Every structure is written in C-alpha cells, then in structure tokens.
Amino acid sequence: MTLDLAFEWGYNSVTEFWIKKYMESTNDEIRELSLLEQIETDPDVNQSTLATQLGVAVGTVNWHLKRLIAKGAVKVSRAERKKLRYIITPEGLALRARLAIDYVERSFSVYRRTRQRVKDHVKDIRRAGFDRVRIVGSGDVADICKLTCLEQGIAVVNDKSAPSLVLDGYKVRLEGLND
After folding, report:
1. Would the pLDDT of 177 be above 90?
2. What does CATH list as the number for 3-88?
3. Predicted TM-score of the model (pTM)
4. Where do the domains of the chain lie?
C-alpha cells in the first residue's frame, strides 16, 4: 500500500487505511464475543432476540452463528420441535476468553493512543499561548480528551474563540491555532 494509492481510495494516510481494515475485522470479533456471551447467558435464545440485542439483522446473526459452529465454538441441538438450543463448547469458552482479552487490549491501545495524541495537541496549544480548549464531539473519546486536558492543566471550555479538539470517530485533530 502506497500513500498515492491510499489517497486514490479516499483515505488520508496509509495508517488510516490499515486502521479501518483493523476495525472492520474487530467488529466481527466483537459480534462473536457478544453472541457467545448472550448464548452463555441464555442457551435457548433465538436469532431474532440475538439480532435485537446486538443491533444487527437476523441474517448477520445467522452468518456469525454458522461461523462459530464451523469453528467448533458452538453446537446446536433441538430443544423443542421448532426451537434450537445453542451450547458453547470448550473451544467456544477458550475463544470467548481470547476475544475478551483482545477486546480489552484493543480498548487500552485506543485509550493510550488517544491520550498521547491529546498530550501532543496540548503542547501545541501551550506553545500558541493558550491555556484552554474546546472539545467538539461526544462519547468515550471526548471523555478521554477532557480528562487528559484537565490532567495537563488545560481548561475545557465551550468558547468558540478557544482552540478546538475536533473528534471524528477515534481521530482527534486540533483546529483554531492560526499557525
């Protein structure tokens, strides 16, 4: 993957391309982890209920269940004439544990990268003579930004004249420094 090809495909960098690819694969893993957790809680759960709990289509649940069955992580038995019971195998328990650990590690990695990015932006804010910042966005990444700024002695304000940390998914960019 070259930078020219990344731009041609609509990405801002090669890193952004790989992060998006990485996040796509993790979405499948997160869904599989959620499915395994739901099945462990209620082995008699139906696909419609699983789809509602995961916020996806029934077909997506069906696809993931088929993959888990093919991996040997889940077995299916008939509970009643039209009802299925999903049983997590020892392989499924091991997979659930691995997926949970991977999820936690990825979450901490995002947390550490976001904190470091904000710390770098705080240095730029201070160099420009500011001691406050506005955060544009909400959610977990915004919370990480707020805590990091406060920890670094930068006040978080709702003032459009202050430099802004603008959130776009997991990206944090600094605007309004008049470089």
Report:
1. no
2. 1.10.10.10
3. 0.68
4. 3-88, 114-175
pLDDT, tens digit, for every residue of 9-65? 454 444 455 455 545 557 888 899 999 999 999 999 999 999 998 888 999 999 999
What is the mean pLDDT of the segment spanning 154-177?
Answer: 92
DSSP sequence for the chain: --HHHHHHTT-SSHHHHHHHHHHHHHHHHHHHHHHHHHHHH-TT--HHHHHHHHTS-HHHHHHHHHHHHHHTSEEEEESSSS-EEEEE-HHHHHHHHHHHHHHHHHHHHHHHHHHHHHHHHHHHHHHTT--EEEEE--SHHHHHHHHHHHHTT-EE---TTS-EEEEETTEEEEE----
